[in-house]
Amino acid sequence: MSSTGDSVASSKWLDAHYDPVANLYTFSSCIALSDLHGDGENKLVVGDLGTGVCNMKLKVYRGTGLLSESTLLDLPTGLVSFLMDLHEPRTPAIAVASGPFIYVYKNLRPYFKFTLPSLEVNPLEQDVWSQAKEDMIDPMTLKEMLEGLRDKAEIPLSVRSLRFLMLEPQEMENFVLLHKEQPIRRQTVITCIGTLKKNMADEDAVSCLVIGTENGDVYILDPEAFTILYKMSLPSTPTLMDVTGQFDVEFRITVACRNGNIYILRRDSPKPKYCIELSSHPVALVRMGKNVVVGCTHETLHGYTQKGKKLWTAYLPAPVTTMALMDLPTRGFQAVLVGLANCEVHMYRDKNLVSSIKTPDVVTSICFGRYGREDGTLIMTTKGGGLIVKILKRTAVFDDRDSAPGPPIAQSIRLNVPKKTKLYVDQTLRERENAVAMHRAFQMDLSRLRLAAARAYVKALESSLTPMSASLTEPLKMNAVVQGLGPSFKLTLNIQNTAACRPVMNLAISFLYDENLYSMRTAFFKIPLLVPGLNYPIDTFVECLSDKGISDIIKVFVLREGKSAPLLTAHINMPVSEGLALN
Predict the structure, then answer these.
(1) CA 203 vs CA 73, 192, 280, 286, 289: distances in Å
(2) Burial environment of residue 58 by CB neighbours within 10 A (0 to 12, 13 to 18, 19 or more)
(3) Residue in 537, 565, 539 with CA at minimum distance from that of residue 474
(4) pLDDT digits over 208-249, tens only?
(5) Quick one: which of 319, 284, 323 has its CA closest to 300?
(6) Where are the domains of the chain?
(7) What is the mean pLDDT of residues 8-12?
(8) CB contact at 8 A, 209 and 82
(9) What angle do CA 496, 497, 501 make, to 5 degrees?
(10) Strand (E) positions, 99-165?
C-alpha cells in the first residue's frame, strides 16, 4: 500500500496498489481496459515502450500481477480494444499500432497484421535512382540531385533517399550498391488510433478502427476484412484523436494536429468541417459530452463546443503531461483527469477543479474504468515506470463547486438568449432611424410623470390623507387601522420607536373630531415607555352618531407631556357607517 493521496482526495480514493518498479513506460494512448476472456473481469492491457530502442512489449495485467507479455517489433503509437465480429463468445480484440502496421491480437495471440497502403513515389526520384542503378551518375551527383528534389518537389522523398542524404561521403557508395537494385517505396506510419461503432451505439457493438497517419490522412477500416472503408485528409499530421458516433449513421472525428490546430471531421466530408486554432500546441485531448477539452503546453485547459466555439479556459499550476476521461454512468458523473508535471492529478468538471490527487512521481498515463470487477478504478503509470491503482469509494461525493479561488460557477453558465425575430430586427431599425424623436418623447413623458407625482404628493400633504406618519424630530412612526362596518368602529394605532438604542417616554395621544358625528370612549391616552424596535398597538372604539350616511376625518396628535406642539400628526378618513345608512 502507499499513501499517494493527499488529505483532500484520501477520503474519496482507496490506495489499492502501488509498484514503483513495475517497469511500465507508456502513455495514455497505449493503455486500455478490456474483458479479454469474456468472463466479466477486465484486464489492463499496456503497450510498453521499453527503452525506446528495445524491450517493446504488449503486457496484460490481472489484478496486481502480470498475466502475459508479448514482444513488439517496433514502438507502439497506440492501442485500442474493440469487438470485430458478432461470433460467440463475444471477446474483444486488441489492435496495436506500430510503424506502418496494425497488429491485431485475439485471445492474446497474433491474429492479423494490417499494412498501410504505399504512397505515391516521386517520378523524378525514381528516374534519379534508375540512373544510379545503370551507373550513369556517381554518388555525389546523386546526392546533389536528391537535395534539389527535396527542396522543390511537391511529393516528399522516400525514406531511402532521406537516409542516403544523411550519410557521410565515404559511406554513400556502399549504400548505393546495397539498395540500387531494390524498388523504391514510400511508406507512411501510424501516429494515432481510435475506434468507431459500426452501426449501433451499444457498448458491445462491432467497432471500426480509425487511424491517423504521418502524411495527414485518416482511414476508417472495416472490422472484419480490414479494408479501407473511408479516407479523409488533414492539412497536417494528426497526433491526438477522439471519435464519436456510428459509421453507418453519423460520426465526428476530433483530431489535434502537429501544426497546433484541432480539426473536426464529419461523415460525407473528406475535408475538415471545423477548425480550432490554439494559442499553443495541444498535449492531450478528451471529449466530455458534446464538448472537447484540450490541455495545452502553456499550462492551460480549454473547453470548446463540437463546432469549435471556445467556452472556457482554466489555468493550471504546472504543465500537462496526460489526460483521460472519468466516466461513471451509474452516478451520471463525468470529469476530466489531468496529470501535471508537479506530481499531481487534477479532476475538472468544465473549468471547475473538484478534486486533486498527489502522486509520488510524474504521471505519464491515466486510465479510468472497470478493472477486475470494480467499476471506479483509476490506473496511472509514472515517469519512473511505476504503477498506481486506486479505487473510488462508493461513498465518495464530488462537489460541483470550484475548490480553486475565482468567480462562482453561476458566472460561467450561459444565458438562454432567444433568437432574434423579424419583429425585433424591424423594431431595432425603427429605433435607429427615430432615435432623437423617441428620446425627446421619452423625456417629455418622464417630466409629465414627475410633475403628476409631485402634485399628488403635495395634495396628500395638504389634505393629510395618509394614515401613516413619521416624526422629523423624534424617532417615531405611527399608522392607523379602522375596523368595522358601523355604527361602531375599532380604531387601532400602531406606534413604533425607530431609534437604534434610545427609548422614548412621557408621550400622550389626543384625538380631535366632530362631536356631532362621532363619540369616543377615550379621547386621550398616555403612552408607555417605547422600547426601540417594538410595535405598540393602542385600541379605542368610535361610535357614529349620524344616520345620514356621511363621514369625516379624525385627527390624531402625539404630544410630549407639558408641550403643546405635536410630535406626530395623522388624519384618518373614517368610512361611511353602513349600519345607520341601512336603517
Answers:
(1) 31, 22, 35, 19, 16
(2) buried
(3) 565
(4) 999 999 888 899 998 888 888 888 888 889 999 999 988 888
(5) 319
(6) 13-118+188-289+362-392, 123-180, 476-573
(7) 60
(8) yes
(9) 150
(10) 101-106, 109-115
Domains 13-118+188-289+362-392 and 476-573 share a fold: no
Number of H helices, E strands in the chain: 7, 37
Residue at 22: amino acid letter: A
Q: Quick one: cell of 311?
A: 467556452
d(CA 550, CA 278) in angstroms, rounded, equals 83
Residue 208 β-bridge partners: 196
Task: Determine the 3-state secondary structure of 455 from DSSP.
Answer: helix
Which residues neighbour 302 within 8 Å (Cβ) at sequence distance 6 or greater? 278, 293, 294, 296, 310, 312, 313, 314
CA dist 113 and 92 (Å) reads 16
pLDDT tens per residue, range 495-510 = 888 887 888 888 888 8
Helix (H) or strand (E) holding 345: strand 344-349
What is the pTM assigned to this prediction? Answer: 0.64
Is residue 476 within 8 Å of residue 558, measured between CB atoms?
Answer: yes
Q: Residue type at 354?
A: V
Report the run of H or E that residue 571 belongs to, with start and end. strand 568-573
What is the distance of C-alpha 373 from the center of its chain? 30
What whole-number distance in Å separates Cα of residue 91 and Cα of residue 293? 31
Q: Considering the domain 13-118+188-289+362-392 in this protein, what is its CATH number?
A: 2.130.10.10
Assign 3-class secondary structure to 248-292: CCEEEEEEEECCCEEEEEECCCCCCCEEEECCCCEEEEEEECCEE
- 380 HSE (CA, 13 A, CB side): 35
Query: What is the CATH class of 476-573?
Result: mainly beta
Q: What does the chain come to in residues?
A: 583
